[in-house]
Amino acid sequence: VGCISSSYWTPWTEEGVGHWGYLAVDTAAQGKGVASALVASAMERLAGGTEEVHIEYLHTQNHVYSDRLKKWYEGKLGFGVVGVQSSARFNGNDAKDSLLRICRRKFQPAEMAKGGRLRLEALEAQLTAQLKALEAAPAAGDGGPPERGDKLECTAIFQRLA
Fold first, then answer.
1. Residue 139 clears pLDDT 80, i.e. is over it
2. For the chain, N or C: smaller number of CB within 10 Å?
């Protein structure tokens, strides 16, 4: 139905600036909130590890869908333009009426707090699963379960992170 990519760092952004892109939604699913849900998910993820988000998109002047996208990115989503580049050719196609718009948006403290919490919760779930797998594995030497003293405990670590 749709996809989006997101990265905590890219070669074209400085440290602390995340990026999302490659947003695509099947035409049959457009207008049903799929893109909004994908962007919200990417933004939540990035808020857990960055302070700002960088996007870029090709805008074709006086094109109804392109103008709608510009209004969504720079209006509703709150991205501000930090650069514009002429795009006479883009991916081998004539794009003389198009501009590459480079935009950024800083996260609010509440967004960063929520993103950080979600990132730690995901890490907790991952570590808990790994610990359960290790506990279920036979102990070295005897083939049986580990002794209580050898058992990996993570509760105290998670409580300190909370």
1. no
2. C
User: Counting beta carbons within 10 angstroms of the beta carbon of residue 72, is it exposed (0 to 12), middle (13 to 18) or buried (19 or more)?
Assistant: middle
Q: What is the CA radius of gyration of the chain?
A: 22
User: Using alpha carbons only, what angle is made at residue 116 by residues 115 and 119, rounded to the nearest 5 degrees?
Assistant: 85
Pairing, β 98-106 against β 93-94: unpaired
The beta strand positions in 17-135, using DSSP E, are: 17-25, 52-60, 80-86, 89-90, 93-94, 98-106
Q: What are phi and psi of 16, to 5 degrees?
A: 90, 0
pLDDT of 31-80, one tens digit each? Answer: 999 999 999 999 999 999 999 999 999 999 889 999 999 999 999 999 99
Does the pTM of the predicted model rise above 0.90? no
Cα–Cα–Cα angle for 112, 120, 43, nearest 5°? 40
